[in-house]
């Protein structure tokens, strides 16, 4: 795993791609308009009717008292009805064609504005769903835009890759880094925390807005005359209150929130798109312009559709007030917990890379290699910016070993197979089977490389898709199927290689009279094999044994660190 920033772990974007898109998004001009709108009616609604009645004229109070006697009801009930009539008249006068209070219906203008508002919700919904699918990681990513200094400190002071790799991970190092992390998070200035809280509330507001039941609400409208829609108050359940809870408690949508939901939606696409960097940046700028346009449309609805007043008319309650908007209050706990999770992921990755560095020492000492060999043909590495393959290092080493190293010892092994006189006849069968497995694995690897080459069965498909510069769901599924098939073939080879190594080592314990297992015995003619060069033959046989042991040990170690998580 390369040494990426913590942010790259979350977003899957390269630093260059992220900065280029951010720069383009910030160049889109005007800020977003605030979605908060206060009509002042809440102050009066919170005053008890009994108190409000006291402030009415004496003639009106007398009228209410007299009417309450004849109607056999309270003055408060009558006063509520009076207020509802006032509110309805105000809505019908100032915002015509929204409601008809006499017929108790919502009208076409309300329907039209609601359907327009749904377009904005539909625009934001896909981005919100992606952020919500990994919300804790999204909070850290949002924080990297709102409080960039925190991420900078983390990368400078808490990154395991700043530690020397020679000695590998140690518990005290981990504890020390976690202590530094807690210190950085706990020392975030109050003004930065407050701004982050506002940004989180912006995201929460967008999330709740995109989840409003638009389809259900719109379906309640019916048309009697073409394009003339209406909805009876009696058909409404809690739609008005649900919408009012969000729309009557609007917030300012911070630009960092818009930037973050777009960038987070591109998670894992770095290097996996055919667009140029300019095209990527232009798409980011287009998103920003469209998002700001939708926010302006949302504000237009909020300021032109008095949902509080309409709710009071619909619910026949002049004191009705929408629920307060809530969400995001626990942001810091989640933010802190996910920083811990990110650290653990990076600590684990660093531990794997430390292990790889140690394996490189063995690789050089036992095989004279400076770097891990890879398969001769790896077409998945060039397609769509690179597709993950489970056995990059393991398959690469096995291929190199069978092609370059095993042939050095093939002759002495074959001599034992053909000329060796095994005391235990079963040992000959096991030795022969193991040798033949090695040969078959070598043949299978050659066949696999041919299939993966540009003219091979698999390679042709990779080459065709790469030249077409097209990534469809069908093409992706096809490539995934091929890769999984190749992984299955490699897994089978590794299993057979392990079986052959273990069995041959058992045979060697008998051949060299080590007798670790009573089932394995010596050769009666070991001292005669190779003729006059018997000593050199035995030495070459011992080297073959050691090479097989070293190769098997390397394969076992590589399997533990070789996975798409760390090698892609």
Automatic annotation (TrEMBL):
It comes from the Bacteria. InterPro entries: DUF5312. This is Uncharacterized protein. It comes from Treponema berlinense.
């Amino acid at each position: 795993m390369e040494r990426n920033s913590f942010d790259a772990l979350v977003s899957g974007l390269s630093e260059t791609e992220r900065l280029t898109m951010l720069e383009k998004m910030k160049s889109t001009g005007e800020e977003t308009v605030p979605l908060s709108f206060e009509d002042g009616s809440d102050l009066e609604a919170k005053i008890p009717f009994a108190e409000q009645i006291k402030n009415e004229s004496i003639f009106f109070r007398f009228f209410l008292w007299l009417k309450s006697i004849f109607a056999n009801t309270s003055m408060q009930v009558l006063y509520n009805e009076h207020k509802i009539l006032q509110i309805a008249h105000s809505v019908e006068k100032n915002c015509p064609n929204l409601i008809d209070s006499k017929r108790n219906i919502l009208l076409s203008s309300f329907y039209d504005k609601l359907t327009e508002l749904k377009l904005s919700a539909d625009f934001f919904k896909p981005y919100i769903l992606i952020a919500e699918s990994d919300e804790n990681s999204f909070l850290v990513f949002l924080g990297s835009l709102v409080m960039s200094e925190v991420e900078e400190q983390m990368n400078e002071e808490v990154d395991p890759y700043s530690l020397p790799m020679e000695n590998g991970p140690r518990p005290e190092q981990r504890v020390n880094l976690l202590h530094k992390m807690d210190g950085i998070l706990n020392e975030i200035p109050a003004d930065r925390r407050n701004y982050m809280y506002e940004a989180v509330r912006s995201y929460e507001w967008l999330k709740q807005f995109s989840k409003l039941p638009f389809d259900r609400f719109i379906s309640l409208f019916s048309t009697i005359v073409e394009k003339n829609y209406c909805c009876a108050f009696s058909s409404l359940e809690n739609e008005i209150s649900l919408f009012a809870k969000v729309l009557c408690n609007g917030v300012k949508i911070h630009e960092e929130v818009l930037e973050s939901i777009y960038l987070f939606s591109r998670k894992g696409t770095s290097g996996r798109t055919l667009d140029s960097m300019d095209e990527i940046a232009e798409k980011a700028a287009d998103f920003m312009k469209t998002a700001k346009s939708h926010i302006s449309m949302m504000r237009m609805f909020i300021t032109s559709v008095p949902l509080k007043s309409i709710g009071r008319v619909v619910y026949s309650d002049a004191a009705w007030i929408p629920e307060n908007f809530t969400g995001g209050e626990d942001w810091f706990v989640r933010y802190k917990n996910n920083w811990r999770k990110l650290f653990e992921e990076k600590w684990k990755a660093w531990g794997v890379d430390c292990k790889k560095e140690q394996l490189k020492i063995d690789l050089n000492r036992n095989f004279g290699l400076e770097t891990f060999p890879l398969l001769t043909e790896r077409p998945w590495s060039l397609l769509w910016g690179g597709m993950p393959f489970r056995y990059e290092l393991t398959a690469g080493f096995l291929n190199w070993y069978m092609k370059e190293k095993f042939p050095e010892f093939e002759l002495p092994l074959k001599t034992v197979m053909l000329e060796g006189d095994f005391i235990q006849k079963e040992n000959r069968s096991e030795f022969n089977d193991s040798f033949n497995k090695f040969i078959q694995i070598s043949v299978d690897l050659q066949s696999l490389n041919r299939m993966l080459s540009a003219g091979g069965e698999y390679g042709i498909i990779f080459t065709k898709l790469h030249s077409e510069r097209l990534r469809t769901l069908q093409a992706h599924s096809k490539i995934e199927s091929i890769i999984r098939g190749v992984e299955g073939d490699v897994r089978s080879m590794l299993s057979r290689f392990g079986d052959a190594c273990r069995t041959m080592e058992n045979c060697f314990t008998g051949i060299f009279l080590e007798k670790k297992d009573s089932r394995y015995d010596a050769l009666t003619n070991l001292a005669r094999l190779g003729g006059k060069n018997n000593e050199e033959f035995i030495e070459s046989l011992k080297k073959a044994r050691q090479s097989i042991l070293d190769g098997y040990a390397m394969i076992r170690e590589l399997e533990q660190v070789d996975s798409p998580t760390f090698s892609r």
